[in-house]
Design brief:
Alpha-Beta Plaits, 2 domains, six-stranded mixed beta sheet, 327 residues, binds adenosine-5'-triphosphate, single chain, Rossmann fold, 26% strand, four-stranded antiparallel beta sheet, 32% helix, alpha/beta, transport
């Protein structure tokens, strides 16, 4: 089932100066971005313009200015062809409570043009894939939020699209449910080769799930790059040490000793952030800690986090994560 990537689909979505103005608000403001195959996270606070972008990409809402192409098709003129090759999971609950997941997803498959037998087979496969097989004949009205989100995902996948646009698929889920949904989303790409654009206002989850992250704010592009670039190594070494009877504040004692050894370091809570000058920095830290007699709990190179985009670049968040999910 997995597809091979060809030169033509190196860019699955491209926008150029895309602008959408409503009477009172500019929802998208000259947005120019290219999205490669794989899993892409589109992150932004509520009202940033994520849903507006998705509706324009699907050809459901016209842009005021600029252009957007999806799988090489023009969203202004090729809406029906785009929707034939793209699956869409809307943000809000749009499910009929009185029908079963099977009935609903078969209906959506038929709407996309699949013949009856193929629609039933694809529905069974897709519901199994999203983990809803046992409950598939029960009315959706009795489903949990997590199960409803899976039905919405299944209907987006049932016609075997090349790309799916998932609008806030983790909304309303508890942390375990979110993790499961993110795992499913990742597998949509790894198992079936389907590219995914997934929106969220939660930064941490996109860091884990996406190959590329696009950040928008007030309809403008804040940043677009690979997740690897976002989380690349920084030039500082995070060091954590124990306290001892001789050094009841081990962190402070180590900070002073590192300064005496000629290194630049600062305390960040219980962590010490040491500037890496060259390879010898590691040895100097190790030797300084050993001479002091405090225990070395960890010594590792710091990595950037996507959350830092929303703070001062130099204002490193707490190592334990803090509120990494807040946009
Ligand atoms: N049909 C509309 N008419 C007028 N204004 C709209 C319309 N749709 C969206 N907006 C406005 O455009 C801006 C962007 O909204 P959009 O729904 O795209 O944001 P979002 O990032 O998806 O956030 P959310 O997750 O809250 O939906 C908001 O200020 C919103 O109020």
């Amino acid at each position: 089932m997995a597809r091979t990537t060809t030169v033509e689909d190196v860019t699955v979505i491209a926008t150029e100066s895309l602008t959408k103005r409503y009477p009172r608000v500019t929802a998208l403001d000259r947005l120019t971005v290219e999205i490669a195959p794989g899993v892409t996270g589109l992150v932004g606070a509520n009202g940033a313009g994520k849903s507006t972008l998705i509706k324009i990409l699907l050809g459901l809402s016209p842009a005021t200015e600029g252009t957007a192409s999806v799988l090489g098709l023009d969203s202004r003129t090729d809406g029906p062809a785009i929707r034939a090759h793209v699956g869409y999971m809307p943000e809000h609950d749009c499910l009929p409570p009185d029908v079963s997941a099977t009935e609903f997803v078969v209906h959506m498959a038929r709407m996309s043009g699949l013949p009856p037998t193929a629609a039933r087979e694809r529905t069974a496969d897709t519901l199994r894939h999203v983990g809803l097989y046992e409950e598939r004949y029960r009315p959706i009205g009795g489903y949990s939020m997590g199960m409803k989100q899976r039905v919405k995902l299944a209907q987006a996948l049932v016609h075997d699209p090349q790309l799916v646009l998932l609008d806030e698929p983790t909304n309303g889920l508890d942390p375990a449910g979110r993790d499961e949904m993110l795992g499913l989303i990742r597998r949509v790409h790894t198992d079936f080769g389907i590219s995914v654009l997934v929106t969220s206002h939660l930064l941490g989850e996109l860091e884990r799930t996406s190959d590329q992250v696009v950040v928008i704010d007030g309809g403008r592009l804040l940043r677009s790059s690979s997740t690897q670039e976002f989380t690349q190594a920084t030039g500082s070494l995070a060091v954590e040490v124990t306290d001892t009877d001789r050094h009841p504040d081990g962190t402070r004692a180590t900070l002073d000793a590192l300064a005496a050894a000629g290194l630049t370091a600062r305390a960040d809570g219980h962590l010490l952030l040491v500037d890496i000058r060259d390879e010898s920095t590691y040895d100097t830290v190790r030797d300084t800690v050993a001479e002091l007699g405090v225990g070395l709990i960890r010594m590792e190179q710091r990595r950037h986090r996507i959350a830092e985009l929303f703070t001062d670049e130099t204002d490193q968040p707490d190592e334990e994560g803090g509120d990494r999910d807040a946009a």
